[in-house]
Amino acid sequence: MLEIKNLTKQYKAGKPIFSDISKVCKAGAGIGLVGPNGSGKTTFLRILSVNSFPTSGKVMFNGSDIHQSPSEYLKKVGLVHDEESLPQHLTALELLEWILRSRKVWDEKGLEKINRLLDELALAERDEPIGTYSTGMKKKTQIASAFIVEPDLLIMDEPLRGLDEATRNVVMKMIADSKMTKNTLIFMASHSMRSLNGLFDEILEFPLK
Questions:
Q1: Three-state SS across 106-122?
Q2: Cα separation, 167 vs 144, whole angstroms
Q3: What mean pLDDT do residues 119-139 have?
Q4: For the segment 46-101, what is each residue's pLDDT rounded down to a tens digit?
Q5: Cβ-based neighbours of 133, under 8 Å, separated by 6 or more
Q6: Is there a contact between 91 and 127 (Cβ–Cβ < 8 Å)?
Q7: Which of 114, 120, 204, 207 sits most deeply, having the most CB atoms within 10 A of its CB?
Q8: Read out DSSP for 95-152?
Q9: How many CB atoms sit inside 10 A of residue 77's CB?
């Protein structure tokens, strides 16, 4: 369970991006975030992914403050950032292996698991350096990095951007399967309400009041 307590984010001057937000989100819930650029979606997700600190308030996950114990929290989280923050010199295979090893869940079936996931996403160039990938290939690698650990919580900022229609359908199925069969809590931001219909239990419209 993730609990948001009186969350406020404000930069040096001007109106807060959002103020005094409180919310309880249970395992297996799907929370969609919609709104125009600059409305606060990415800022909100950056706080949930401990890439940013709140001005006041806190976020608790299973009873622990995520900003006080970030390493333990992030072991349970799959992230798709709005930016392509990937190591350019590694291949997709190497990156996913590193993720599994760093979280101490690598075993003899690790390579098979990685290849099965990359097959699902139709990423054929998995042995090439990520720095040579197209935008769509990098997005597929980000998505694979989020799903490979079978997370308790998925935080995704525009995960469908840069993908062709067939891959978007695959990713939405992956999200639905994770939610329904693994009880994953999901936060996903999108410009389009249409892409979120039918999958999410609640839609948060930004800017938050």
A1: CCCCHHHHHHHHHHHCC
A2: 12
A3: 95
A4: 999 999 999 999 999 999 999 999 999 999 999 999 887 899 999 999 999 999 99
A5: 92, 125, 141
A6: yes
A7: 114
A8: HHHHHHHHTT---TTHHHHHHHHHHHTT---TTSBGGG--HHHHHHHHHHHHHTT--S
A9: 20
- 179 contacts 196 by C-beta, under 8 angstroms: no
List the domains of the chain with CATH numbers: 2-205 (3.40.50.300)
Can you tell me whether residue 164 is helix, strand or coil?
coil
> Which residue from 207, 177, 165 is spatially nearest to 30, judged by alpha carbons?
177
pLDDT tens for 137-164 read 999 999 999 999 999 999 999 999 889 9
Looking from the CA of 121 toward its CB, the CA atoms found within 13 Å total: 29
d(CA 28, CA 145): 20
**Band of residue 191 on the pLDDT scale cut at 50, 70, 90:** confident
